[in-house]
Write a structure and sequence with these properties.
alpha/beta, Amidase signature (AS) enzymes, ten-stranded mixed β-sheet, about 40% helix, catalytic activity, Amidase
Length: about 450
């Protein structure tokens, strides 16, 4: 169910210049949704979507008749994960709880997108409260497989060519993993660089708003609008020095993922990239445990008022996670929160000592699993999310069953701009190799 990709930067240039008519573009996308959405189910239903969007598009045209005055995301259609508050839409967070519980001011990141000229295409499907209980969304590359979670609908919508940009969130692997499963770009900025107000929290110490696009240039364009203090990176003449975090962390990936990762490394080395293998995350099980304790405890705190009243409406795995979080002691929470900055310092110090600019690893433990019950393993993403470091996945290969595999790139905190700048030529290189592989 893959249609022609919508490349954000190219599309914006066409819409802003008038080369592409905005209302005609909206009609085209709505027709795509009619064809694809019954199978992929990336969006929450909206009966009058086309009429609403055409009205909003016409108003946008009236506001900005002069192409030279059009804002940076003029006419871009955005999918928004249904844990973000968006004016004009109910927020359900993938749950059966009354949506009135989640009412409030629109997320400031959504308001920033609107101010930049974007139009909200619709709410995208999320797992229940961005946790483990999946929704109906299917992987556009193979409808019998999961698109990943928890930003399931956002990843599938971009992959299927229904929108050029979607918002997701990541607490463990909820942007990077579905992007890898769906063969697109997922960008998780440094923790806190995109304001998270107006978003139903999972774990306030870790939750990070992320972007899903078809290419790196699109992520950079959207990041410049959404990330605080964004600066255009200085053009680097030298390639980044890459580090592979060897040891127990990497061994969590499947044999197939590791074999293809080694193929990706060889491609990069042949192209002139320096790759160092460095022992890291020797205590990965302790890191996983700290992440699990902190996220479940903070989830229990978020749901402290809702869960006792609406317990019967929660699905089993969500309820179990909240109950587990209720058992985490205050001391354990304090230690787990402190562990985040310690891990970040450890990994960034290691980068400085070993002369590494970017860490690279498989973006997921393997290709998208079959079925819709499980959304996949977060092991490859969890420590980076816990540390709050910026991460990006680019499509980098194909599994034996034809499903996409991704390469994850991680930079030091607040080096988001450089991460995206370095990633673009790497993405082009690996796409050429993947196309040749196919």
């Amino acid at each position: 169910m893959i249609m022609e990709p919508l490349l954000l930067a190219k599309l914006v240039a066409e819409l802003r210049s008038g080369q592409r008519d905005l209302c005609a573009f909206v009609e085209e996308v709505c027709e795509r949704i009619e064809v694809v959405e019954p199978s992929v189910q990336a969006f929450l239903p909206e009966p009058e979507r086309a009429g609403r969007l055409l009205y909003e598009a016409a108003r946008l045209q009236q506001r900005f008749p002069d192409p030279a005055q059009r804002p940076p995301l003029y006419g871009v259609l955005v999918g928004v994960k249904d844990i973000f508050r968006v004016d004009g839409f109910l927020t359900r967070a993938g749950s059966q709880l009354p949506p009135e519980l989640f009412a409030g001011n629109e997320a400031s990141c959504v308001s920033r997108l609107r101010k930049a000229g974007a139009l909200i295409l619709g709410k995208t499907v999320t797992t229940e409260f961005a946790s483990d209980e999946s929704g109906p969304t299917r992987n556009p590359h193979n409808l019998e497989h999961t698109p990943g979670g928890s930003s399931s609908g956002s990843a599938a919508a971009v992959a299927a060519g229904l929108c050029p940009l979607a918002l997701g969130t990541q607490t463990a692997g909820s942007v990077i993993r579905p992007a890898a499963f769906c063969g697109i770009v997922g960008f998780k900025p440094t923790y806190g660089r995109i304001a998270a107000d107006g978003v139903i929290p999972y774990s306030v110490s870790i939750d990070t708003i992320g972007l899903l696009t078809q290419d790196v240039a699109g992520s950079a364009l959207a990041a410049a609008v959404l990330c605080s203090g964004w600066k255009t990176p200085v053009s680097a003449t030298q390639r980044p020095r890459l580090g592979v975090p060897g040891g127990p962390y990497l061994r969590q990936a499947s044999e197939e993922a590791l074999l293809d990762f080694e193929r990706q490394v060889r491609i990069l080395e042949r192209a002139g990239y320096s790759v160092k293998r460095v022992g890291a995350f020797s205590d990965i099980q302790a890191i996983n445990s700290s992440h699990r304790q902190l996220t479940s405890a903070e989830m229990a705190q978020v749901h402290a008022n809702w869960f006792p009243v609406h317990q019967a409406r929660y699905r089993p795995r969500t309820a179990a996670k909240i109950r587990a979080g209720q058992q985490v002691s205050a001391e354990q929470i304090t230690l787990a929160r402190a562990g985040r900055s310690c891990l970040r310092l450890e990994m960034e110090t290691l980068m400085q000592q070993k002369g590494i600019d970017l860490w690279i690893s498989p973006a997921a433990a393997g290709p998208a699993p079959a079925g819709l019950v499980q959304t996949g393993d977060t092991a490859m993403n969890r420590p980076w999310s816990y540390a709050g470091m910026p991460a990006l996945t680019i499509s980098a290969g194909k599994a034996a069953n034809g499903l996409p595999l991704g390469l994850q790139l991680v930079a030091p905190a607040m080096a988001d701009e450089q991460l995206l700048a370095w990633a673009e030529p790497m993405a082009v290189l690996l796409k050429i190799a993947t196309d040749h592989q196919a």
